[in-house]
Amino acid sequence: MRRRGDHWPPGRTVAFVGGGLGSIAAVSVTGIEAYDTTLLSVHMVQHMVLSMVGPIFLALGAPVTLALRTLPTANRKALLRVLHSRFVGVLTFPLVAFGLFIANPFVLYFTGLYRATLEHAWLHEFVHVHFIVVGCLFFWPLLGLDPLPNRWPYPARALLMVLSVPFHTVLGLTIMQSRTLLGGDWYPNLGLTWSDPWNDQVVAGGILWAGGEIVSVTMLGILVMQWIRQSEREAKRIDRALDRAEAAERADAAGATKITNQTAPVRPQPDTE
User: What is the pTM of this model?
Assistant: First the structure.
């Protein structure tokens, strides 16, 4: 894009690389992941980052828009076909993505699935990918800048975000107050002298509760800012359209006046001699 003299906002690159990929890397390849099957609290930090923080910044990076502006014509058409396919349309429909985003943690933590992820490394890593994908499906249509189908107006998007807040609160409080350890006897059998599984589970529930509240309020603020900017752009567009219409009317009026002057009969001047 630079070679052809085009411009790409650097903030989008920072959001995608730093906030998106950077946050995902921070909880997956920096050493924190070494404790994700040892401490539930560390797993919960991963959960919040992979499902909420990372996807939000990835969406703000607008990678699909960048791809459409840089890919060759054939690849661009193929990408557009995928974006406008029925499968993508169903997955990105806000209510479908909302249902997946809300149901995902309840199914994970209140079934035997979570214990299975602790026992099988491949399933554990698959769940990490699943967190990212579901988070992207939820946040991309709401906060993303890419051209996606099923884009709802801003008031409806804000309402959907507000509705997602209580579910994190309920889930976090349920985990904090649970009399059953998540993962069964997995954590006690580790025999850690420096960590109590029950206390760690309370901390994990608090992370999910507080983290969900903080991230939800933050993303709602981002949405409001986007809403304001869109309103300003729309107002400027309307002003430009009105200015063009007014200029065209003045030009038409000036042209009509000129034609009238040219076609008006010339009155003979009285003879004063």
Answer: 0.81
> CB-based contacts of 98: which residues, under 8 Å, 6+ apart?
138, 160, 163, 164
* Close Cβ partners of 52 (under 8 Å, ≥ 6 residues apart): 135, 139, 211, 212, 215, 219
pLDDT in tens, the chain (273 residues): 888 888 899 999 999 999 999 999 999 999 888 899 999 999 999 999 999 999 999 999 999 999 999 999 999 999 999 888 888 888 888 888 899 999 999 999 988 899 999 999 999 999 999 999 999 999 888 888 888 777 788 888 888 888 888 888 899 999 999 999 999 899 999 988 898 999 999 999 999 988 888 888 888 888 888 888 878 877 888 878 887 888 877 777 776 676 666 665 555 555 555
* 66-to-13, 16, 69, 115, 155 alpha-carbon distances in Å: 10, 11, 5, 40, 27
CA angle 28, 33, 34 (to 5 degrees): 145
- Distance, in Å, from the CA atom of 242 to the CA atom of 246, rounded to the nearest integer, reads 6
Signed CA dihedral, 130, 52, 18, 1: sign only: positive
